[in-house]
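User: Show me an example of a complex going from sequences to structure tokens.

Assistant: Sure. Here are the input components:
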Amino acid sequence: MLRYQGSRLWPLSLRTLCLLAVWWALTLGEPSALGFGLVVAVLAARLSVMLFPPSGYRLSLPGLVRFAGYFLVKSLIAGLDVARRLLKPVVDVHPGQIRVRLRLPDGSPRWLLANTLSLMPGTLSVRFEGEWLWLHCLDTRQAVVRDVRTTEARVATVFGLSLSEEEAKS
Amino acid sequence: MPDLLIKGWQWICLAVGGGFFAIGTLGLFRFSDTLSRVHALTKVDNLGLGFIVIGLLPAVESVAGGVKLMLVWGAALAASATSAHLVARTVQRRPGMTLNEEYQRDD
Amino acid sequence: MTAVLNAVAAILLFTLLVALVRIWRGPDPADRMLASQLFGTTGVGFLLVLSEALEAPALVDVALTLALLSVLALVAFVTRVAPSVSGDGRSGANEEDRNA
């Protein structure tokens, strides 16, 4: 578990480490570039903490790993699903839009959900409208909402959130 | 022998990737509404890119090179999802194209 | 191997060219903006394959830049060109689906 300690030092050092890893990959591990990378990573992390202050969510590492696996499998299915519909003699779609009430809080969780849903089978996030998210569906005959709820629950575990059931019913 | 096996694996991945890109482009013509076309571009093309990256991975010389390829893939994924949302937002909803959540539940 | 890479690169370039017909025909401005997304995925794939075929590692950097810039082009389109999408006059929540 990666816990947000309340101090500014922890998110700053975590972001510096991530940026340094990105720099290392971008420069193909060139040792002579690491000095510059360290300076740039510290400055960029400092700036990012100023622009995007830590949200206070406790990111769960196992949740993140499981989410990545779920995402990879589902996006593979999504691509195959669209390809299958396209290759039929008559294009097999039944498009329409639905809206779902989001149970996730505003900010990163909703953003992650919306972007993930766009890569999931049959759904494409169109726009936010307050508590609601409009989705375009390739096939409205499928149980789209059930899939959205599953993904929503997965996103919630990444951020260490629990979703209340009553809110979903309203 | 394992060398040939890896090469074969690469060929398959690259060919499958190219195939998915071709299907994605087909979607641009076979789907009749803009948002369905966005579906095709986002999902199928990203899968194509994924296969291309997996096909290229065995050829990289260093670990950092491999991480960099994965980084490009991740950036393209995030870019594609964001782009899809941005395009979708601008498409005006046509009347008769909507149904609500309650309808879905009764299904 | 290089022959395979070149063939795949050619396929990708061909699909990109065919897709440009859709961009040309439109008809919606949003259809045209799909070009940006197209270059963000097909263009990136093409550059990655080409980088391996030509043994030009710098093309990977070009691919990364292209992926990131494609979003910026769309942001510019959404904020400056597209009509306002502030959510007014959208009371269609209870409409029945005509095809259902």
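The lines above are the inputs; the final block is the predicted structure for all three components together. The CA atoms of residues 83 and 89 of chain A lie 12 Å apart.
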